[in-house]
Design a protein that fits this description.
The complex is a heterodimer of chains A (about 140) and B (about 375).
Chain A (H helix, E strand, L loop, with lengths): L8 H6 L1 H6 L1 E5 L5 E2 L14 E5 L3 E10 L12 E7 L4 E6 L13 E12 L4 E10 L8
Antiparallel strand pairs in A: 1-2, 1-3, 4-5, 4-7, 5-6, 7-8
Chain B lengths: L3 E7 L10 H13 L8 E5 L2 H5 L5 H9 L5 E5 L5 H16 L3 E7 L6 H8 L17 H14 L3 H4 L1 H10 L13 H4 L4 E3 L2 E2 L9 E8 L6 E10 L14 H14 L6 E4 L4 H10 L8 H6 L11 E2 L4 H4 L7 H13 L13 E8 L4 E9 L1
Parallel strand pairs in B: 2-3, 2-4, 9-10, 9-11
Antiparallel strand pairs in B: 1-7, 1-8, 4-7, 5-6, 8-12, 11-12
Helix pairs in contact in B: 4-14
Classes of the chains: A mainly beta (about 140), B alpha/beta (about 375).
Bound molecules: zinc ion.
């Protein structure tokens, strides 16, 4: 692997907490939440933020099946990616446990699960974090 | 005296296996300087993907050595996919403030490594701890935007396919373009999928190229620069109230028009890394109503004889090509050539004003340069 890809060892460790706990930030100025947490609110620019737990249930706004994936992703291709509406925030995340791609549709309920995101051969670091899956047993979407 | 684009030099975009970054850059510069005689005082280099694929730090100084520009003032600019026009902005401001000639050179090489490695590098145009965290390459965000767009505006896949068809019909006439062949719209939807609903025919090809532009505060040459502006945008499409409206593009365009004192332009080069980005930029520039850009493209509004400005006469990123850090410099050179009536491809008839609009990724930043004929 060329090493242009994922997070480095120390970097992955340093940045793990928001990914492991799905922690975003709430803006004390405008009240909006975002994830992953930046150092300023993406909506109003305020630096006055506090840690905030993101909800784990949401709805799929849009999805894409990605075939032009990078090295290390070929065997899993296509990789499904969604824009997810959590009510209080939106996130872009990989979709997992997609057993039947034909059931992916805008509007279906999805939920956060903790998964392996990537594995870098050159340093042996495994990056974990949140992916989303269609809620098992939920209907076809609306 | 306004700063002018004195001369330009371009290499054909291609898979140049036998040429490296310096070979291509020197070729473009030689082409740009062959008639002008005078040496520039400043060299502003622009490169992006190559910084990850074939690392070279302080590229501008090494390039100056290759060019024999000993003792010149050299620096590099990096702004992802918008690097080239960012370098034009930096070069333009330098030319104004110093009164000296500035040579802007964009160069990038994408064809030396397998495409999976290139996608791994290119995904870093997105935020490292956000949208770029997953193994999704460069196309995922464009796929999401295209999917949202079709859903929200009820645009069908076939209508969007007229964009790449128009780009190929333009590129066919452009000797610098990478993909000089026609593509029928009905072939687009069924081509190899890249990020659904987008296919390989909606996406730029991975090629190498270099472009050079000599900026001269003494005026003369191909065209005058009326303004160069930029704006940053959201760090993710998830942070945008309406990801189908490109805030950074709107603001950079508004600023550039206002500084230039014009209401619009007759010839345009815009960033169409994927079909959807071209359509969203057309709508954000208010050249089409929301959800109507594809329909207008299909009607021929943005080609020769159409009702709108001539858009991407070069063939765009889609078919001229997108050597990432060089693309904005190509755009600036092409628009300047159009205004001097020397563009060697599809021509805007007697155009007096033109613009280049470049963005990074989903619009984390946007740059607009406005030119007028001399
Ligand atoms: Zn805020």
């Amino acid at each position: 692997m060329s090493g242009v890809g994922g997070l480095r060892n120390v970097e992955a460790w340093r940045t793990r907490i928001p990914r492991y706990r799905f922690l975003g930030a709430r803006c004390k100025s405008c009240g909006k939440l975002h994830y992953p947490p930046l150092k300023a609110c993406p909506y109003c620019g305020s630096r006055d933020l506090e840690e905030a737990q993101l909800p784990r249930q949401g709805r799929l706004l849009a999805f894409t099946s990605v075939y032009s994936v990078e090295e290390g992703g070929r065997e899993e291709s296509p990789i499904f990616v969604g824009l997810i509406d959590l009510g209080v925030a939106r996130v872009v995340a990989e979709l997992t446990d997609v057993t039947d791609p034909s059931r992916l549709a805008a509007g279906i309920p999805v939920e956060a699960v903790f998964r392996r995101i990537s594995e870098e051969d050159d340093e042996g670091v495994i990056v974990y974090g949140v992916k989303f899956r269609p809620v098992p047993g939920a209907g076809e979407g609306d | 005296m306004p700063v002018s684009v004195k001369s330009v030099g371009l290499t054909r975009i291609d898979r140049h296996y036998n040429k490296g970054v310096y070979d291509l850059a020197v070729e473009a510069v030689d082409d740009a300087l062959k008639d002008s005689g005078a040496e520039p005082s400043y060299l502003v280099a622009s490169t992006s993907a190559s910084l990850l694929l074939e690392p070279q730090l302080d590229l501008a100084s090494y390039l100056a050595s290759h060019l024999g520009l000993r003792g010149s003032r050299a620096l590099a600019v990096e702004a992802g996919e918008a690097s080239g026009l960012a370098a034009i902005l930096a070069g333009y401001r330098l030319a104004i403030s110093t009164g000296e000639r500035v040579l802007v050179v964009g160069v990038d090489k994408l064809s030396d490594l397998p495409s999976a490695s290139v996608h791994a590098a290119l995904k870093h145009v997105f935020y490292r701890y956000g949208d770029a965290l997953y193994k999704v390459g460069h196309a995922a965000v464009a796929g999401l935007l295209a999917s949202l767009y079709m859903d929200r505006f009820g645009v069908d896949r076939e209508t969007m396919s007229y964009w790449p068809a128009m780009m190929h019909s333009h590129a066919k006439e452009n000797p610098y373009a990478m993909l000089r062949f026609a593509v029928k719209p009905e072939k687009v939807a069924t081509a190899m999928p890249v990020a659904s609903p987008l296919t390989l025919l909606d996406m730029f090809p991975l090629g190498d190229g270099a472009a050079a532009v000599l900026l001269d505060p003494q005026g003369g040459g191909l065209a005058e620069i009326a303004s160069v502006e930029s704006s940053t945008g959201p760090a993710s499409i998830a942070f945008s109230e309406d990801p189908l409206w490109l805030d950074a593009v709107e603001e950079s365009w508004r600023r550039a028009l206002s500084t230039a004192g014009v209401n619009g332009v007759e010839v345009l080069e815009i960033h169409d890394s994927y079909t959807i980005m071209g359509l969203l930029i057309l709508e954000t520039l208010r050249l089409a109503e929301r959800g109507k850009a594809a329909e207008l493209v299909a009607e021929g509004a943005f080609t020769v004889g159409g009702s709108g400005p001539l858009v991407n006469a070069s063939g765009g990123l889609k078919a001229r090509g997108h050597p990432v850090g060089a693309t904005g410099v190509y755009m600036a050179a092409e628009v300047a050539m159009q205004l001097a009536d020397v563009f060697p491809g599809v021509k805007a008839d007697d155009a007096k004003t033109g613009a280049a609009v470049s963005i990074n990724g989903h619009g984390s930043s946007a740059y607009t340069a406005i030119f007028r004929s001399t």
